[in-house]
Design goal:
This protein is about 80% helix and about 0% strand. The protein is an all-alpha fold and about 290 residues long. It has one domain. α5 packs parallel to α7. About 55% of the residues are buried.
Length: about 290
Amino acid sequence: MLAELGAVGTRILANSCANVLQKRLTGAGIPALPVNAGVYLVLSVVMIPAAFSGGWHWSAELLSYACCVGICGAAGNGFLVAALETGELSVLGPINAWKPVVGMIGALLLLGELPTAAGMAGLVLTVFGSYFVLGAGQGGFRFRLLLRRDILFRLLALVFTGIEAVFLKKSILLSSVTGGFLIWCWFGALFSLIGVALGRVPLGTGRSLRRRWRGVLLLALMFGLMQYSTNAAFQLLPVGPALALFQLSSAVNLWFGWKFFHERDMIPKIAGTAAILAGAALIILGS
């Protein structure tokens, strides 16, 4: 139990800190794609010695899952950074409550993990809580809010990262926690660089990243802690309950959004986040 709590607690804090750093870097005018690629590259270089630690080996099956992890991870993290560029942290964090829905469906199809009745009730409650968060400051929830740029990007991010979680767990089962982390780093870097090459990156972006190298390194550290603890949690827990536990970061994001970015309309956001956390508890108790 202590191992599970340690992995989940590290993941929650590192994820929320990474969100703040991402928002600050994009707020300084650096596009999402280069920020994402820079983080993956730093981690890929740092983790090269771990490739020789043993305990895992390549196979054709593992390589296919690694490509899926890289594509979904690069797309998901890219959309997340783009969403944080203009969106409110206290809104975008709780939207992640929908991620267990994607994770549970994927885990059912690929891993055979069956959700319980309590788990399904928890999913309904977390989505219901996000209704209040999305409607905060907007006079209530409207479906057109889902088409708002920051929210649409956040929804795309959670779909891709929810699918990535399933492929990542499969990679960990075929290798190890460290092997899964190396796959996440290297294949994420590969597909992020492809995204940068295909996208339109403004001139001077590289210079802007170099000026803020401390922020990029700190973001890479938070991302690395977040992903390694995520891998450890996936090894110890089913995907659905693990993703539900990760929703505790929505409460941290709520406070960070108010503290660091002076975001408003906190009462409905707090109410919605409370419902999301209650739903997460149901998913965990039903696992």
